[in-house]
Amino acid sequence: MTGNNEILIIGPPKSGKTTFLAQLYGRLVDKKGRLRLACAPENIDGIKRAYDRLTGGEETESTPSTDNLEVKIPVIYEGQEFELHCKDYGGEQVRDLVALMEYDKTWIDRAKSNDRWILFIRPAEIEHRFDLSKRGYAVKDQDESSLTSGTSDQSQFIELMQVLLHARGTGMKSLIDKPRLIIALTCWDELKSNSSPEKILRQKMPLFTQFIAANWLPEAFRVIGVSAQEFPLNTEEARDKYLDDMPQSFGYLVLGDSQKDKDLTRLIEEALIL
Q: pTM score, two decimals?
């Protein structure tokens, strides 16, 4: 493991950050995964509320935009005990980092104190604006005139990375070794695809993919698919499944070989061993 073991989970609104943290907590409590809970954690009210909603067959609620909670979970990994630090905050704060191009001391501390970042991107929510990184103006047709104009989602994610790197004091004159970066493509079940996470990222966000590859060392980043909930809880049948089998029975990761792994704690493990 290089650097410290603190992990910053970065996610805009509705990217699945709160749902993943709730499911991670459930796996740790139920001892279903490679990471184990060392003792009862403190101050996890936000995660516990989200987990309780899932056990009741309800979707989680987004973290309030003003929340800035330090979630500290003592875990055991490969016989070593350490404290997993995850920051629980409103996703709107991430959106505002790009919109305002400014950050406060809280975000400076987050960027500097965490040598491992997990960036949550929900690929099914990526808007298909006309994007020169995909096609030139020569192939733009009339059907695209109704599409949303403005900065593309992938450009906003590039700007987000640039803002956080600036807050950390990390330049881009040489390839980045720290922070190590996991790109988590969330709500994977929405895609209904057998493609690898790397291929989906290239298809959905080619410019962003090139930005990461051009600025990070190849061994310092990885792309993983995540379905923390496995399916939407919008039918009585789906809600009954969660009531009967408990939330920790659902959810999976998609790793480089495109195989599904039910152990959601492996996302944290991958960040630790990257």
A: 0.85
What letter does residue 176 receive in the DSSP assignment? B
Q: Which residues, in sequence order, are CB contacts of 36 under 8 Å at separation 6+?
A: 28, 75, 76, 77
Q: What is the dihedral of CA 176, 165, 273, 69, to 10 degrees?
A: 180
Cα 114-247-183 angle, rounded to 5 deg = 30
pLDDT tens digits for range 130-171: 545 545 544 444 444 333 334 588 888 998 899 899 989 999
Give the angle 84-114-2 at the CA atoms, nearest 5°: 85
Instruction: Enumerate the β-bridge partners of residue 7.
Output: 116
Where is pLDDT greater, at 10 or 99? 10
Nearest to 165, CA basis, from 108, 120, 220, 209: 108
Rounded Cα–Cα distance for residues 7 and 269 (Å)? 11
Residue 165 neighbours by CB distance under 10 Å: 17
Cα 249 from Cα 109, distance rounded (Å): 35
